[in-house]
Design brief:
Radius of gyration: 27 Å
Largest sheet: 3 strands, mixed
Structural class: mainly alpha
Order of helices and strands: HHHEEHHEHH
Strand order of the largest sheet: 1-2-3
Shape: extended
Number of helices: 7
Length: 172
């Protein structure tokens, strides 16, 4: 039975063996840049720094957690200033945008790929609708007709060029 238990020091060692020094240094730089940047915001900068902290950074998105939605709103209002400060002070770490959550919520950046995929699908649908409207109004040319295989047909000049290339002797 005693083989199933490990000491606290063994557990801590196992956890920290999986974290590299560069990850710790990067995290320290980001946390320091966060506090420094927020403290420079006039008015409530000190309070913003005290009520928020960085949770995660993935794909250029910095996830920030605060203890009240009001702080998230204030952070959102200062987003441009914060991004500029963070990119200047974080030691070469590129931060494209900020995401916010309230302490205790389960929001994370791990599903950001799925969210991006859904956003792209919505954008594609909207783009298709707008193209159709432009075609109906006469501002855009209709898409090339599809041939029997379902592929769009090319202009005759391009087809002639491709035929010449296809029939030319192959050189290796």
């Amino acid at each position: 039975m005693s083989d199933e238990f490990i000491s606290g020091s063994q557990m801590i060692t196992k956890v920290f063996n999986n974290i590299s020094n560069s990850d710790i240094e990067r995290s320290d730089k980001i946390q320091s840049a966060w506090k420094t940047t927020l403290q420079k915001i006039s008015g409530n900068g000190e309070k913003l720094a005290a009520h928020s902290f960085v949770v995660d950074l993935k794909n250029g998105v910095l996830l920030v957690e605060s203890d009240h939605p009001g702080w998230n709103q204030m952070l959102q209002m200062n987003k441009k200033f914060i991004l500029t400060g963070m990119n200047r002070l974080s030691g070469g770490v590129k931060i494209d945008t900020l995401a916010f959550r309230v302490k205790g919520s389960e929001a994370s950046l791990s599903n950001s790929d799925e969210l991006a995929k859904r956003a792209m699908e919505r954008y594609a649908i909207k783009l298709e609708e707008e193209e159709k409207q432009l075609e109906e109004m006469g501002y855009a040319k209709k898409k090339a007709a599809a041939d029997a295989s379902g592929k769009e047909s090319l202009p005759p000049e391009l087809n002639a060029i491709f035929e010449r290339l296809k029939n030319s002797p192959k050189k290796i």
